[in-house]
Amino acid sequence: MTGLAHKHVVVIGAGMAGMAAATRLAERGIETTLIEAAAHLGGRARSVAIEHNSQVIQLDNGQHIALGAYHETLKLLATVGVQEKDAFLRVRLNLEMRDGRKTAFNLKTPSWLPAPLNQLVGFLTCTGLSWHERVTVMSLMLKLKKDNYRLNDDVQLSTFLQQNQQSSNVIALLWEPLCLAALNTPIKLASSKIFLNVLKDTFENKHNSDFLLPKLDLSQLFSQPIARYLSANQGNVILNQRVKEIKPSDNDYQVVTKEKSVEASHVIIALSPARLRSVLGDLPKLNCIAEQTDDYNYQPIYTIYLQYAYGITLPKPMLGLVGGVCQWVFDRGILCGQNGLMAVIISAQGKHQQYTQDSLALRVAQELRDAFPHLTKPLWHKVIAEKRATFSCNVDLPRPAHITPYPRLYLAGDYTYADYPATIEGAMRSGVACANLIK
Ligand SMILES: Cc1cc2nc3c(=O)[nH]c(=O)nc-3n(C[C@H](O)[C@H](O)[C@H](O)COP(=O)(O)OP(=O)(O)OC[C@H]3O[C@@H](n4cnc5c(N)ncnc54)[C@H](O)[C@@H]3O)c2cc1C
Description:
This protein is α/β, with parallel strands linked by helices. The protein has three domains: 9-44 and 218-296 and 396-437, FAD/NAD(P)-binding domain; 48-89 and 212-216 and 297-391, Polyamine Oxidase, Chain A, domain 2; 107-206, protoporphyrinogen ix oxidase, domain 3. It has helices spanning 16-27, 71-79, 84-87, 117-125, 131-146, 157-163, 168-183, 192-203, 218-232, 273-276, 287-294, 332-336, 357-371, 424-437; strands spanning 9-12, 32-35, 47-52, 55-60, 66-67, 88-91, 94-99, 102-108, 211-214, 235-238, 243-248, 253-257, 261-264, 266-269, 298-307, 318-321, 328-331, 341-347, 380-391, 409-411. Strand 16 and strand 17 form a beta hairpin. Helix 1 (16-27) packs parallel to helix 9, helix 1 runs parallel beside helix 14 and helix 4 (117-125) packs antiparallel against helix 5 (131-146). Flavin-adenine dinucleotide (FAD) binds next to helix 1, strand 15, strand 19 and helix 14.
């Protein structure tokens, strides 16, 4: 029994986890109020408008990519009316890493073979590794499959790879770029267990390893269709209201902002781990969880946008770069019609953080010119530095469960989906799982 005559769920935080929870609840016909501190939905996956020469340009706070393995994300998008073909360019796993003008590594998995044969043929025929190195990669993949990608004891990924005879060349060209892209954590800190979970899901079938590259900006992709769906299905959205307290009483909760107090039969707290502590004042039984998240470290993601002249493109929508500060470059012209606009990603901590934003943009432009000489001088640049983009996915990181010691009060958010690093998919799965716990 709750104090309210009917169910009313308050979801706190409208990032991917909160939006997924609210959508699932609306789908189930349960009255829901989604409360967000910012003026917009989306949290760490949102669009930002910048002004250049009195023109407003829509960018993302970071170039996001999804994988074929993001089943919950695709399902939720379908629920709110977004079809995959309109939202994403699906490209078969192809890792092409450039070092200046030369292709340092190229891995293509043949589409006509089922998994894991497609990976084995891919690794056998990839360029940039010696024959011996290719054999060590294939042996490791076979061993992982045999062990169902499980490890008894977690260990730093760099140690795990060395223990499994991976050379420094293989690590630099294959494993480190994958680790940075998937875990946003340096390989010397990263959890092998979580990395293997991602590998397992990615390589489980051949479609899971496809890259899904957004053709829309993040607001068009997620926030706008979700907001439309919620408003059509009795889901309330309150923006610009930071929740300050959650007061439990015998039968319900009062969710308190500066201006409002909203009564709830159930509460889903869908905040980032860095913000969790700020709403727990009246919930002492959650102290031990907050103590764990207080100890989390965070990793940055830098996105450097460079606008080139109209018509300038890359040979592919996504390419890897090694040997400098740049890690990946995306052609937003090919992807979302932003002609001549390149987005360069630099994940996790590193020497790029020593630069000022302008000097980093100059350095990135130089590295792009070295790799693609037709990319001469950019017309303008914009650096978006998300300093606490994700939690650092370290060895044995404690990850709280969705169920808490308080009845009808749940935790969602990327950090609560214990199998995954910080991802859209982990956040979505956590939100849907919490919504499904409400009976
Ligand atoms: C630059 C960048 C690039 C990334 N690239 C990828 C990628 O390519 N692929 C991928 O899968 N993942 C990527 N990620 C990770 C992914 O974006 C996150 O894991 C995911 O968005 C986290 O969602 P969340 O709902 O758990 O948390 P958040 O997005 O942090 O949502 C929490 C929400 O709570 C709100 N809030 C905070 N305090 C309060 C309060 N007191 N009251 C009310 N609301 C509050 C916040 O404003 C926010 O909207 C990237 C992240 C960044 C930053």
